[in-house]
TrEMBL record:
Entries under SMART domains matching the protein: Gln-synt_C
GO BP annotations listed: glutamine biosynthetic process
Family of the protein in this entry: Belongs to the glutamine synthetase family.
Source organism phylogeny: Bacteria, Bacillati, Cyanobacteriota, Cyanophyceae, Oscillatoriophycideae
The species this protein was found in: Cyanobacterium aponinum (strain PCC 10605)
UniProt-recorded name of the protein: Glutamine synthetase catalytic region
Molecular functions per Gene Ontology: glutamine synthetase activity
Length: 722
């Protein structure tokens, strides 16, 4: 019965709140758990440090001749932080983080024990890779891959279930050199951006050009639910979302929650999270309530894309771990509660370098503005040409609940530029460049400063891909996802467009065209071919959905089943191959792995829905029915006629639910499919629809059955009791 539910409410309302701690000074916490460059400099011989620093800046593999010295210094530092173990941390194709822990202990020939950590094990590790999805890249008989330290991401210590562990961020590749992880393609995509951006910058007349790389700042949304409740919800525990549950009477219409006061208990939790992040050198910056009750957000200062990605993974880990310590369950799922706002991860992205600065920043001179327009034009071309790829990299079973649900961007990829910038590009398209504002923007030597907006001001929240002053913000990314995939896609399409621009510019300049004229010509061509992707209106509206597809020729791919097969298209394969980011084999393996994950998570959910309906909802309904029947028959005994309509109603709902449960169970036992694509479609359409059917009846029963019998914590309770 609902004893457990009542008990949970009792425990929660009577809990002792952890007291506020006076926050420590930032300088006392900052990066204390990271083996930073400064710490390396302190502990390493000068020549070794110099060589290591060079390696870090170029991203090349560590020089083996210095690896032993670096390893020893790293170990000594880690042991001074009480570490007993070390782990190569890597990022498999699931959205999780994986690590293999080893002890520093090494048994000597004479049986004595010393702590050992050689350069060899720092540089290379061999996890049992066979347990990680690889999409058929390695068959199990050649199961091993290896991990290798990514020197551009610093090592750190972290308290885990094992105790304190030295964690070393690594890439994970097969012995034949194929990327089995998310980090390797990210590093490759970054160097593709570097090469192509350098070409363009040279053509624009720069001579001093530092390495160009991408940056990322990811805003993470999440829900907190009291663990007492979560423990009584098998769906939350196993699927990360509620598969059943009637939306509360008091819902999201109470928008005052947004930016409202953060509840005290949550604030104390956030404080602990932030301390932990600061110690790991993660620059957490903003925190606030989100739209839904129980929903919050954390965002860091942006960092280089590779480090930001590692830090984002760590942030998710720490949110989950710290939540447990505070009696919460942290839900990173994109849609934990039906009918309540979901969670996303806005990925803010820009490219730049030390010498030219942020290349997506409009700048203060006409020259800088022309350069900005070139890079911005490259993004426009890329997003139009490869919009379906951007859709594919955010395609997961859980994110499908969010995209297109009028709270998150639609599944149609378009760009928002802001009115002024859109106007500039429209003028370019029309060739209206003389005497206008645009002439000032483009031509060097004009006195009046151009008016490219620093901040578009009017933030359009309905666009999946928005220019926000000096960066683009990709808003279709799911809260539970690694940011690596989206960053790889953005970097790769940008690199491709920059190469295309560089080719064109070279050609024009060779023919003697003046630089500005050449730029204008190329941007005009981009706008003519790709300007259709720019849209400043309401992305949620019906009209846009119609117009995007019918007039603009943009794709609307509502489900993962529609979006993932994009990865198998020829022009996508060629793009990744040409840019040196993913080989055709690596790309295909990604399609296989992601498709597998989609099917697996839907299968787990389908089984769970059926199970909960049968073993929780059905017995509860029967119990209530029997109570009602007893009462009715007692009434009859004393000559009164009771009303049978409620009994009939509940009985009908229960029977209907069980019919749908049977259909669902039959549906997931179908096994013959022509192709993976066909199976994806079947799950997206048939299986998901049946899950919704079961839920419909279960939720209707929740509305009828006596509250004191209902065993599952309700939406009302989970979202409002703190
Ligand atoms: P909002 O909620 O208005 O979208 P936030 O301030 O919450 O904005 O988050 C903005 C994110 O964008 C932060 O992580 C911030 O560091 C990041 N950001 C700012 N400038 C850049 C840039 N040039 N490149 C990448 N990310 C950036
Ligand atoms: Mg944002």
């Amino acid at each position: 019965g609902n004893k457990s539910r009542v008990q949970a409410i009792y425990e929660i309302t009577n809990r002792k709140v952890k007291p506020f701690k006076t926050p420590k000074k930032l300088e006392e916490m900052w990066a204390t758990d990271v083996f930073t460059l400064a710490k390396m400099q302190e502990s390493l011989p000068k020549s070794v440090f110099k060589s290591l620093k060079k390696t870090i800046q170029t991203g090349e593999p560590l020089d083996v001749s210095i690896a032993d010295v670096v390893a020893t210094a790293m170990r000594d530092w880690a042991i001074s932080k009480n570490a007993l173990y070390y782990a190569h941390v890597f990022y498999p194709l699931t959205n999780s983080t994986a690590e293999k822990h080893d002890s520093f202990v090494s048994v000597q020939g004479d049986g004595s024990v010393i702590s050992e950590f050689s350069g060899k094990v720092l540089v290379k590790g061999e996890p049992d890779g066979s347990s990680f999805p690889n999409g058929g890249i390695r068959s199990t008989f050649e199961a091993r891959g290896y991990t290798a330290w990514d020197v551009t991401s610093p090592a750190y210590v972290m308290e885990t279930d094992n105790g304190v562990t030295l964690c070393i961020p690594t890439v994970f590749v097969s012995w034949t050199g194929e990327a089995l992880d998310k980090k390797t393609p990210l590093l490759r995509s970054n160097s593709a951006v570097n090469k192509s951006a350098r070409r363009v910058l040279e053509l624009l007349g720069h001579t001093d050009i530092a390495p160009v790389s991408s940056s990322c700042g990811a805003e993470q949304e999440y829900f907190l639910v009291d663990s007492h409740f979560a423990h009584y919800r098998p769906d939350l525990l196993l699927a990360g979302r509620t598969l059943l549950g009637k939306p509360p009477a008091k819902g999201q219409e109470f928008d005052d929650h947004y930016f409202g006061a953060i509840p005290e208990r949550v604030q104390i939790f956030m404080q602990d999270v932030e301390e932990c992040l600061y110690r790991l050198g993660i620059p957490a910056k903003t925190r606030h309530n989100e739209v839904a009750p129980g929903q919050f957000e954390i965002a860091p200062f942006f960092e280089s894309a590779n480090v930001a990605t590692d830090h984002q993974q760590l942030t998710m880990t720490i949110l989950r771990q710290m939540a447990k310590k505070h009696g919460f369950t942290c839900l990173l799922h994109e849609k934990p509660f039906a009918g309540i706002n979901g969670s996303g991860k806005h990925v803010n992205w820009s490219v730049g370098n030390r010498t030219q600065g942020n290349l997506l920043d409009p700048g203060d001179t006409p020259h800088a503005n022309a350069q900005f327009l070139v890079f911005c034009g490259a993004v426009i071309r890329g997003v139009h040409k490869y919009g379906t790829l951007l859709r594919a990299v955010v395609a997961t079973a859980s994110n499908d609940h969010r995209l297109g649900a009028n709270e998150a961007p639609p599944a149609i990829i378009s760009i928002y530029l802001g009115t002024q910038l859109e106007d500039v590009f429209e003028q370019i398209r029309k060739g209206e460049i003389t005497g206008s504002q645009l002439a000032q923007v483009m031509n060097i030597g004009v006195d009046t400063l151009p008016e490219i907006p620093k901040d578009p001001g009017d933030r359009n929240r309905t666009s999946p891909f928005a220019f926000t002053g000096n960066r683009f913000e990709f808003r279709a990314v799911g809260s539970n996802q690694s940011v690596a995939g989206p960053l790889v896609a953005m970097n790769t399409i940008l690199a491709d467009s920059l190469n295309w621009i560089a080719d064109k510019l070279e050609e024009e300049l060779k023919q003697g065209t003046e630089l500005n004229t050449a730029i204008q010509k190329i941007l005009k061509e981009i706008m003519e071919k790709h300007g259709n992707v720019i849209f400043g209106g309401n992305g949620y509206s019906e009209e846009w959905h119609k117009m995007a597809v019918e007039e603009r020729g943009l794709a609307n791919l509502p489900t993962t089943a529609d979006a993932l097969p994009v990865l198998k298209q020829k022009h996508i394969e060629e793009l990744f191959d040409r840019m040196g980011v993913l080989s055709p084999k690596e790309l295909e393996s990604r399609f296989e792995v992601y498709a597998e994950q989609y099917l697996l998570s839907l299968e787990v959910e389908a089984k769970l829905v059926a199970n909960m309906a049968k073993t929780i909802v059905y017995p509860t309904a029967m119990k209530y029915l029997s109570q009602l029947m007893n009462t009715l028959s007692s009434l009859k005994d004393i000559g009164l006629e009771g009303d049978l309509s409620i009994v009939k109603h509940i009985s009908t709902l229960t029977n209907e639910m069980m019919v749908q449960v049977q259909k669902l169970q039959d549906a997931i036992s179908v096994h013959d499919f022509e192709s993976t694509e066909a199976k994806l479609q079947y799950f997206a359409k048939t299986v998901r629809a049946l899950m919704d059917e079961v839920r419909k009846y279960a939720d209707a029963l929740e509305a009828e059955i006596a509250d004191e019998l209902w065993p599952l914590p309700t939406y009302q309770e989970m979202l409002f009791i703190k």
